[in-house]
């Protein structure tokens, strides 16, 4: 049931234009270095330093293949209420989040 509600929310957000395409490629080298560190350290504190799982689930590319980029974007931006995944949308721009999603897809977390 939770997956259905999430899917409906995702469709509504996409149709409202709240989630938009973008890769974050326009980020400065310094910002990318900051985000790479955030991914390894902050995300790694829950998802494991190798991102294979810990308190949070694995976020390796093979474990994310069934989740769309939009779903990952929304999860990072808004968190998962009732679970340990916090919202990052107030600290990260949409471009930052798109950049993180791409790194997770590529498995490039260094």
From TrEMBL:
Pfam families: Cytochrome_CBB3. GO terms for molecular function: electron transfer activity; heme binding; metal ion binding. Keywords: Heme, Iron, Metal-binding, Signal. Gene3D superfamilies: Cytochrome c-like domain (1.10.760.10). It comes from the Bacteria. Coiled coil: none annotated. InterPro entries: Cyt_c-like_dom, Cyt_c-like_dom_sf. Residues 1-21 form the signal peptide. Residues 19-108 form the Cytochrome c domain. This is Cytochrome c.
């Amino acid at each position: 049931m939770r997956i259905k509600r999430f899917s409906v929310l995702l469709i509504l957000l996409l149709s409202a234009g709240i989630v938009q395409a973008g890769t974050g490629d326009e980020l400065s080298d310094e910002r990318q270095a900051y985000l790479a560190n955030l991914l390894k350290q902050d995300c790694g504190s829950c998802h494991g330093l190798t991102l294979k799982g810990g308190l949070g689930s694995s976020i390796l590319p093979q474990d994310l293949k069934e989740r769309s980029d939009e779903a990952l974007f929304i999860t990072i931006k808004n968190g998962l209420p009732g679970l340990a995944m916090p919202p990052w949308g107030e600290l990260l721009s949409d471009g930052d989040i798109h950049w993180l999603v791409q790194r997770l897809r590529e498995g490039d977390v260094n």
